[in-house]
Each structure stands twice: as structure tokens, then as C-alpha cells.
Design a protein that fits this description.
- The chain contains six helices and nine strands, in the order αββββββααβαβαβα.
- With 145 residues, the chain is α+β, with helices and mostly antiparallel strands.
- The chain is elongated.
Length: 145
């Protein structure tokens, strides 16, 4: 029960998902709402669907990424596949919503523990999106005068 009420209460809303965004509608199905610093994340438990209000959130519980307590005493940032897994673990970790930003958001984490089902996704996106072209500077040799 504490995973539902702490640290932030989970809210309930009704509406529909349209183009990845949440559209409120009193006649729509129920969605749980997780508050993030720059966005709201909506989860429909019956289908597993996730949606956001603004499309800005990288993950549910993003604040855990930069929290010193996440990595204290040798612990890792836990990355879960679903909100249900995350809630069962007492909200100890994150749920990635937008894997395109994984490298930039997670590369400074000293340790990451990831759900086995997410390993292919993690491997695919945990590399820089672009590397610079490299040219070799040749040493010039000039004739002595």
C-alpha cells in the first residue's frame, strides 16, 4: 500500500490516448497519473498503455536518476518494464518512456539494474546518437633550406 501513497500519491483520471498524448474525457476509461517535474504520465492498468500530457517525460520517477540515495551503499538504478513491476518494487527505480534519450539521461549513472526483457532495448539505445567524423592530421615534413 505504501507504493501507492508515498512518496507522491497516485492520482486517477479518465480519458483517452491520442498520438501518445492523454486527452481527458469524463466518459473515458480510468488511468493512473504519475506526476513528473515537467510532465504527467498516464497509465492504464488494464491494457498497459502509457501516455503523457506534454511528451516531455523521459521516464516515470526521473528524479531517481540524479538522487544520490539511488546509488548509495552500492545500490543501482533499477529500470522496470512496466508500472506494475515498478509499484511492486516499492517505486524503487524508473520506467523508461522514451528510449531515444536513454544515453543522455543514463550515461552518468554508476550502476544500472535492468529488467531482462529490456536488455535489447537498452543495448540499442545506450550509445551516442551521433559520433563526429574523425580525420587524421599528418605531420608535415618540409625541406631544409
Amino acid at each position: 500500500m505504501t507504493a501507492i501513497t508515498r512518496p507522491e500519491p497516485i492520482r486517477l483520471c479518465h480519458g483517452f490516448k491520442a498520438n501518445g498524448r492523454f486527452e481527458p474525457d469524463p466518459s473515458g476509461p480510468s488511468w493512473f497519473v504519475f506526476v513528473e517535474a515537467e510532465d504527467l504520465v498516464f497509465w492504464r492498468p488494464g491494457t498497459g498503455e502509457l501516455a503523457t500530457w506534454h511528451g516531455r517525460a523521459f521516464a516515470v520517477n526521473e528524479s531517481a536518476i540524479d538522487a544520490a540515495s539511488t546509488f548509495a551503499l552500492g545500490f543501482s538504478l533499477n529500470v522496470f518494464e512496466s508500472p506494475l513491476d515498478w509499484l511492486r518494487a516499492g517505486r524503487d527505480g524508473i520506467i523508461v518512456l522514451n528510449w531515444r534519450f536513454a544515453f543522455d539521461k543514463l550515461r552518468h549513472c554508476p550502476r544500472v539494474a535492468i529488467a531482462e526483457s529490456l536488455v535489447p532495448m537498452y543495448d540499442r539505445f545506450m550509445q551516442p546518437p551521433r559520433m563526429p567524423e574523425v580525420y587524421i592530421l599528418r605531420r608535415r615534413t618540409e625541406a631544409a633550406a
